[in-house]
Design brief:
It is a single chain. By secondary structure, the chain is α/β, with parallel strands linked by helices. The chain has a domain of 243 residues: Spore Coat Polysaccharide Biosynthesis Protein SpsA, Chain A, CATH 3.90.550.10. The protein is 49% helix and 16% strand. A 7-stranded mixed beta sheet has the order 5-4-3-6-9-8-10, with helices on both faces. The protein has a two-stranded antiparallel ribbon with strand order 1-2. Helix 4 runs parallel beside helix 12. The protein is elongated. Its EC number is 2.4.1.-.
Length: 402
C-alpha cells in the first residue's frame, strides 16, 4: 500500500473517532436529561407551592420527615392506644348522659301527653327550673283507694298552699302515684282526673294499673320521678302507711353524702313455691332448692333510694327483670351493684302502742303500719288515730332545717 493511501485511511479513522466520541457524549447528556425529567415531574406535581413575602414561588416540602425507628414507633402506638381508650371512655360517658336525658324527655312527654292534666306547678316550675330537692315521696295508690288517699290528705300529707310551701322551703315533693286503666280515658281515669283537678297532688305514669304489675309500676315511678325532679332521694310508700315527713327527711339527711344508698327495713323472707298462696313466686327455682329464702331487700311498705340508684333504674328499666313481688324486684336490681344497704327499723314501726311508746322515749318513728295487714289495718278508719298518737306534730315539720 502506498503512503498516500495510508494517510487517507488514517484521516478517515480520526474523523470517525471524533464523531463517535461526540455522539457518546450527546447520548449521555440526553439520557441524563430524560431520566431527570421522569424522576422530578411526578414529584413536582405533588409538591405544594406557596408565595413568600417577596412574591416569589416557594415550594413547601412534604413527606421528607425521616421515618422513626422501631422504639419511637412503639411509643407512638402505645400513645395512640391510650388516646383511643380515653376517647372510648368519654364516648361511653356521653352516651350514658344522652340516655339519661332521653329517658327524662321521654318520661316527661309521656306523662304530659298520655296522662291526665298535671298540676301547674309540675308542668311549669318543676321540669323547667330543675331546682334541687331533698326528696320525692311517691305514695303508691290504686283507682279504688279514694278513701285511703283522703285519710292521708287529712293527716300527714300537707295540702294546698302548705304543700307548695313544703316544696319551696323544705325541698320535699309528695305525690300520689298512679297509672292508667286498661281502657284509657274510661270512667276510672276520668275519676282520677277530676280528683287531680281538685287537689293537684297526682303523678300520672305511663303504666297500666294491676296488682301483678307492681314491679313494672315501681320502675316507671322512679324513671319518671328522676326525670321530673332533681332530688337527693326518691321514696316509695304505700297509701295505708303513716309517715312522719320531718323525721323521714332528717333520717335521709344523715346519708346525703353517700353516692348509692338503699334504705329501708331489710328482710329476707321465704321464697313461696306453692301456687295459690299470697306472694307466690313463679320463678322460685331461680333461688335454689325449695325452702330457700330471698336475698336481703327492703320491705315494700316504705323504702328510699339515692339519686344514682334511681338514675340507674331509669336508664336500664327496659332490661331490669321483674319478679312477682315488687320489693324483691327492687332488691334484685341492686344486688350486683356497689350500693350500701341501710337497715333502719324506724321505717317499719308498729301502730299504737308500739310507735307511741317509741315517740315517748324520744325515738320518733318514720313510718308505722301493721305487719299482719302489710299496712295499717282498716287504714281509712285508723289513720287519724295513728297520726294523733304517733305523729311528730305539724310544728316539727316547719321548724326542721334540712
Amino acid at each position: 500500500m502506498s503512503w498516500k493511501s495510508r494517510g487517507t485511511d488514517s484521516s478517515k479513522s480520526l474523523v470517525s473517532k471524533k464523531w463517535a466520541l461526540l455522539l457518546c457524549i450527546g447520548c449521555f447528556w440526553g439520557g441524563m436529561l430524560f431520566s431527570s425529567r421522569i424522576e422530578t415531574e411526578p414529584e413536582a406535581r405533588d409538591i405544594p407551592r406557596t408565595m413568600n413575602e417577596d412574591g416569589k414561588l416557594k415550594i413547601v416540602s412534604g413527606g421528607c420527615t425521616p421515618k422513626p425507628d422501631g422504639k419511637h414507633e412503639s411509643t407512638d402506638i402505645l400513645g395512640e392506644v391510650s388516646r383511643t381508650h380515653h376517647a372510648i371512655q368519654t364516648l361511653d360517658k356521653t352516651i350514658s348522659n344522652l340516655e339519661m336525658e332521653l329517658a327524662a324527655a321521654r318520661a316527661a312527654q309521656e306523662s304530659i301527653l298520655n296522662g291526665s292534666p298535671i298540676s301547674d306547678d309540675i308542668k311549669i316550675s318543676e321540669p323547667i327550673t330543675k331546682r334541687k330537692f331533698l326528696m320525692v315521696v311517691g305514695i303508691n295508690t290504686a283507682f279504688s283507694s279514694r278513701k285511703r288517699r283522703d285519710s292521708v290528705r287529712s293527716t300527714w300529707m300537707p295540702q294546698g298552699d302548705k304543700r307548695k310551701k313544703l316544696e319551696e322551703e323544705k325541698g320535699i315533693i309528695i305525690r300520689f302515684v298512679i297509672g292508667h286503666s286498661a281502657t284509657s280515658g274510661g270512667i276510672l281515669d276520668r275519676a282520677i282526673e277530676a280528683e287531680d283537678k281538685r287537689h293537684g297532688d297526682f303523678l300520672r305514669l305511663e303504666h297500666v294499673e294491676g296488682y301483678l304489675e307492681l314491679s313494672a309500676k315501681t320502675k316507671t315511678y322512679f324513671a319518671t320521678a328522676v326525670a321530673l325532679w332533681d332530688a337527693d332521694f326518691y321514696v316509695k310508700v304505700d297509701d295505708d302507711v303513716h309517715v312522719n315527713i320531718a323525721t323521714l327527711g332528717a333520717t335521709l339527711m344523715r346519708h346525703r353524702s353517700k353516692p348509692r344508698v338503699y334504705i329501708g327495713c331489710m328482710k329476707s323472707g321465704p321464697v313461696l313455691a306453692q301456687k295459690g298462696v299470697r306472694y307466690h313466686e313463679p320463678e322460685h327455682w331461680k333461688f335454689g332448692e325449695e325452702g330457700n329464702r330471698y336475698f336481703r331487700h327492703a320491705t315494700g311498705q316504705l323504702y328510699a333510694i339515692s339519686k344514682d340508684l334511681a338514675t340507674y333504674i331509669s336508664i336500664n328499666q327496659h332490661v331490669l327483670h321483674k319478679y312477682a313481688n315488687e320489693d324483691v324486684s327492687l332488691g334484685s336490681w341492686f344486688i350486683g351493684l356497689d350500693a350500701e344497704h341501710i337497715d333502719d327499723r324506724r321505717l317499719c314501726c308498729g301502730t299504737p302502742p308500739d310507735c307511741e311508746w317509741k315517740a315517748q322515749a324520744g325515738n320518733v318513728c318514720v313510718a308505722s303500719f301493721d305487719w299482719s295487714c302489710s299496712g295499717i289495718c282498716k287504714s281509712v278508719e285508723r289513720m287519724k288515730v295513728v297520726h294523733r298518737r304517733c305523729g311528730e306534730g305539724e310544728n316539727v315539720l316547719w321548724s326542721t332545717a334540712f
